[in-house]
Amino acid sequence: MSNVPLPPPGQYIKAVRETSRAVRTKANISIAPESIKRLLLSPAFTSTFERLRVAHGMSMPLNFPSVASELNVLSVLSLLNFASGYRVPLHQATGRGAFDNIRAFVFSAYISSSTGAGDYFSARGMQNMTETTVADLMNVTDAIHVERPHEKIPGLTVGELGGPVWEVVQLIAKTLKETGDALVASGYPDLGNFVLEALKEGEKAKKAGGDEAEVTVERLIRGIPAFQDMALVYGEAVYCFKKALLTLHAVALRFGNSDSPPIPVPRTSHLPIFSDNVIPSLLVHLGIIDLSNADASLGLPQLFPDAHNPEILHRLLDAAEPTTPSADRKTKNKEVPKEGPLLTVEQAYVLRAAAIDACELIVEAAKELDTSDARKDLAWLKDITLPELDAWIWAVAKDRPDYRKLERFALRNTAYF
After folding, report:
1. How far is CA 121 from CA 114, 249, 393, in A?
2. pLDDT for 189-232, tens place per residue?
3. How far is Cα 38 from Cα 43, in angstroms, rounded to an integer?
């Protein structure tokens, strides 16, 4: 957002943490130590964390001709990791949620490019992206029109472009065009090359004793408008930078396990979480983020009226009810989720910031937690990282049928999450 200043050089990651804690405190959002301990020791957490701790959904079942090609597509997938505010209309139109639709679009565009349709994910291809192409690749051409009464003929309706799915199509096309413009202006053939150069700059800083993640993420944010995930709340800047931070972690997950990685791989275990709408909403439902005494002028206490109901909370923190994989798949495919509260920009950034700070507090508490009286060995809790916690919250929200039914807040018309 152009009216928000970027953080001082070298302090981008610090700015995420500090501004998140500051706005969470100013909004009077509570995070109680006993609520954190309750979650960490709950069957819901301890029985699934190991399985879901790296499940960010960024793996790609595609064949790539080169590392450069794979890095480019991975970077584009991170760039377009938004549309969470359109979860319900996308489910209604396609049977899939926001991220699954974005991923399907990226895969479709890449495969089409590989079969001679032109490289959609080159800088020039991005510049030339149209709404029509996006809708075709998303397979939503039948969901981007709304009907309205004819101006002169009573009883006749006419169709015109519009509606929430059309908004998603426009956001994707706009983000790709804007990014293509920035890349062409800076002389990069595609986003992957830009990300690679940022990673190399980070590697230089690492060899000189610096934090390569800080250098890399700053370069990404300064160079690409769609990574400038920030807003003014109470007249002060709040920085989340979800997609830029996620880009680094996606690179680390994909290439970090190699003994001799083909590209510089940043250390990411210390990064703040990649705050979207899922993580804050779930942390409210799981009793971590308490809005009951939060700033009423922002309308926060009314957002999730069923949160902190003791009976509901007990069920959510217990182990999941067993389901058969086939029945679970049928439920996932048929169920249209219930729309959560539609928020203002200020409300959304306050909740996202609260989630960032809450996860910092959860990881700090886990390191100090006394697990000596636990029924099973929980020593591993002391080693959990912020990206792992992020992955668990994001993945468990999809993993459990009862969690999938929980309302998530939505913010429309944003390309940041």
Report:
1. 11, 21, 30
2. 999 999 999 999 999 999 999 999 999 999 999 999 999 999 99
3. 10
Amino acid at 156: L
Question: Other C-beta atoms within 10 Å of 329: how many?
Answer: 11
d(CA 116, CA 96): 28
What residues are paired with 237 via a beta bridge?
A: 232
Return the structure tokens found at 30.
Answer: 């509570």
The CA-CA-CA angle for residues 417, 276, 189, to 5°, reads: 40
For 63, residues 6+ apart whose C-beta sits below 8 A from its C-beta are none
Q: How far is CA 164 from CA 67, 153, 159, 413, in A?
A: 36, 27, 15, 9
Angle (deg, nearest 10), helices 278-285 and 386-399: 80
Look at 67-71, 115-119, 155-159, 208-212 and tell me which has the smallest mean pLDDT: 115-119
Whether the CB-CB separation of 123 and 116 falls below 8 Å is answered with no
Structure tokens at 79: 């760039």
